[in-house]
Specification:
single chain; 181 residues; alpha/beta; Rossmann fold; five-stranded parallel β-sheet; two-stranded antiparallel ribbon; 7 strands; 53% helix; 15% strand; globular
């Protein structure tokens, strides 16, 4: 099973991915961890493309992260795509909360030498994610909906409900979704 999780910063992707990985016993790959080198240095583009191509060749995975320039690589390989289409009020609050929670240290889904930081540009990027990125994402999801199961999450309670059902039903949950479509 190959599962992709995309959405804005602060949407809850990484937390969802960790718990989903535990439930389904699948390896979880947080793209932020691999993209950001120590000191917040970006991975060069060609290296990043190669990393993504190699990653999706694995037999099973959960990949957490958007990274629009390489999203098609992951979408083409995914069996299931979760899109966290969460309100910017919620995501911005979570980003601010996370900044306080991890002040001076790195989050679990980041390289150890990338302490949590925050600037106005990052806040604006998250706030405008729905307006700027959502139309293109929906277009791509529509394109890949023939080959991947697409699950939209509009509120954190929906993510919690899905995880609770997966705790109970395991991967059979996905088969039930397929038969109800």
């Amino acid at each position: 099973m190959k599962i992709m999780i995309i959405g804005s910063s602060g949407a809850g992707k990484s937390t969802f991915a960790r718990e989903l990985g535990e439930i389904l016993e699948l390896p979880v790959y947080h793209l932020d961890y691999y993209f950001w080198k120590p000191g917040w240095q970006e991975t060069p583009y060609e290296e990043w493309v190669d990393f993504n191509k190699n990653l999706v060749m694995k037999d099973k995975w959960i990949i957490d992260g958007y990274y629009g320039r390489t999203v098609e690589i992951r979408m083409q390989a995914a069996d299931i795509i979760f899109f966290f289409d969460i309100s910017p009020c919620i995501t911005t609050y979570r980003v601010l909360k996370r900044r306080i929670q991890y002040h001076g240290k790195s989050r679990p889904d980041l390289n150890e030498e990338c302490p949590e930081s925050l600037d106005w540009e990052f806040i604006k990027l998250g706030w405008n994610f729905r307006k700027m990125k959502r139309p293109g994402i929906l277009e791509k999801l529509n394109k890949h909906s023939q080959t991947a199961k697409v699950i939209m999450i509009h509120h954190p309670k929906e993510a919690r409900r899905i995880l609770n059902e997966l705790h109970t039903k395991g991967s059979a949950y996905f088969e039930e979704i397929e038969s109800s479509i």
